[in-house]
Amino acid sequence: MAKNIVKLIKEMQGANSAKLDLSGMGLKIFPEQLYELKDLEYLDISNNSLVTLPLEVGKLENLKYLDLRNNRIKYLPQFLNCLADLEMLCLDECLQSRIVDEDFKNINLIYGYPKVKIA
């Protein structure tokens, strides 16, 4: 499985594509080869078994769309807010996730999880 993912990412690099679909690939960790994709704008990594997002995801500076649906992510790291171009974050079926309005005010659309207000 890992070889297929690395091959897919390398093919994407060669094609200068801004879109990558890694949904349903059985991923338990974020593939570190993704951090090399500086022009990546759309990442679908839904329907996997991810539990955390590594700090290096912040290197995906051009990311506009991030689909994390149907994963096991426990919390959303603050560095996601540093992705200035991120417009849409999909969290359906990430029931363990917690999100706070003030932490993610730069993201226009967050689907699949109600925002929690801080009193």
Which key terms come to mind for this protein?
about 120 residues; alpha/beta; Leucine-rich repeat, LRR (right-handed beta-alpha superhelix); 5-stranded parallel sheet; disordered C terminus
Brief account:
With about 120 residues, this protein is α/β, with parallel strands linked by helices. The chain has one helix at about 1-15; strands at about 20, 40-45, 65, 90, 110.
Ordered list of secondary-structure elements with their pairings:
Layout: H1 2-15, E1 19-21, E2 42-44, E3 65-67, E4 88-90, E5 109-111
Parallel strand pairs: 1-2, 2-3, 3-4, 4-5
3D structure, described in words:
With 119 residues, this protein is an alpha/beta fold. The protein has one domain (2-111): Ribonuclease Inhibitor (Leucine-rich repeat, LRR (right-handed beta-alpha superhelix), Alpha-Beta Horseshoe). Helix content is 12%, strand content 13%. It is built from 1 helix and 5 strands, in the order H-E-E-E-E-E. It is globular.
Q: Structural class given helices, strands, pairing?
A: alpha/beta
- Strand portion, in percent? 5-15%
Helix coverage percent: 10-25%
| Number of E-state strands | 5
Taking Cα atoms only, what radius of gyration do you get, to the nearest Å? 14 Å
- Sequence of strands across the biggest β-sheet: 1-2-3-4-5
Mean pLDDT: 77
Question: How widely separated are the two ends?
Answer: 45 Å
CATH class designation? Alpha Beta
CATH topology title: Leucine-rich repeat, LRR (right-handed beta-alpha superhelix)
> How does the major sheet shape up?
5 strands, parallel
- Name the helix and strand elements from N-terminus to C-terminus, one letter apiece: HEEEEE
The CATH architecture name reads Alpha-Beta Horseshoe
The fourth-level CATH homologous superfamily is Ribonuclease Inhibitor
Low-confidence stretches: 113-119
Shape: globular
Number of domains: 1
